[in-house]
DNA sequence: CTTATTTCTTAACCTATATTAAGAAATCGA
DNA sequence: TCGATTTCTTAATATAGGTTAAGAAATAAG
């Protein structure tokens, strides 16, 4: 199963046999059944997870008890609380599985050590992080400039897979509206 | 003036004399008077800019002609259209100076070549990008979960310098409200 | 210093989205 | 398979924040 990660890395920078072995040693496979957590708010994020199967999400719970989804992570995505993972401070995010899932976990320690042994992996994570930042910027601009309906349409275009596998209320939470309002938007003609 | 960049890099990973020389060669100093552009929507982002003095911003203009600010970049920050810079596709952002400014510019070409010659700089940019992503995530969650007034208060706490140097309308644009509404919030007691 | 331009404030009115509630549909768990 | 739980829909009502407009204050430019 680790092969899935290896091919993902190879899509960005080619690893030789020795390097592949090192990666295999540092990463640990883990089953995450639906609704189980990989990380809870209040803890320091020790791990970043690469999704082999299924789908996880990260989210906060606000003062009124409402969930707000920061990220969905389907197959071949990484998920973590970047802030807590990088700064090693207590996190405000929860990360759990929306579907029965299988992931690889990598600790921050291992990641930093791996960067010294295999500089190519520093490149791999630099590229991933650049892409994530570019997407995040796009999302920010969408909030600033587009009404909910258009944000929903863009979500459908961007993540067609998720539309069919996730409950609507999760999508509403991601695009920043209530499930009731999303239902209304979907009911509208045109 | 390049020394300012060198000390910023040294805050993350120490460069030796030779490496410092390489950086000095690859970067170009540029004056950017207030209201002048370093980048315009529609073009491919060739450069990333490090601010030596002053303050720049990146923003889109929506269909109705309203500006929405993605980022402020005061001294010691980098600014670019990450998406266009990384993917080398036409950009939707403008970048201009809010105050008379002085910057260093680095082309994407140079940056990629520099990564091969000085892997430490790949680390430098990885760390910067991780931090930027963590902040961007925070901002996203703030939009999802907090009312405008609280977002404004957090902005004041986070960027006290900008509060005093920038017109309020720019700040309103950054936190995602109209200048009129910000004015109203500021007028409220408590 | 004086005028022109930009920014800020206030207020009346408007709209996108939230809230509450309740029943219907779908999915889950035993 | 069947009851329990979760999700979805609809509709009435409420509100945060937007729009428009016009004058005041501040800042820039000549």
UniProtKB/TrEMBL annotation, chains A, B:
Signal peptide: none annotated. It comes from the Bacteria. Residues 30-116 form the Cyclic nucleotide-binding domain. It holds the Pfam family cNMP_binding. InterPro entries: cNMP-bd_dom, cNMP-bd_dom_sf, RmlC-like_jellyroll. Coiled coil: none annotated. This is Crp/Fnr family transcriptional regulator. The lineage of its organism: Bacteria, Pseudomonadati, Bacteroidota, Sphingobacteriia, Sphingobacteriales.
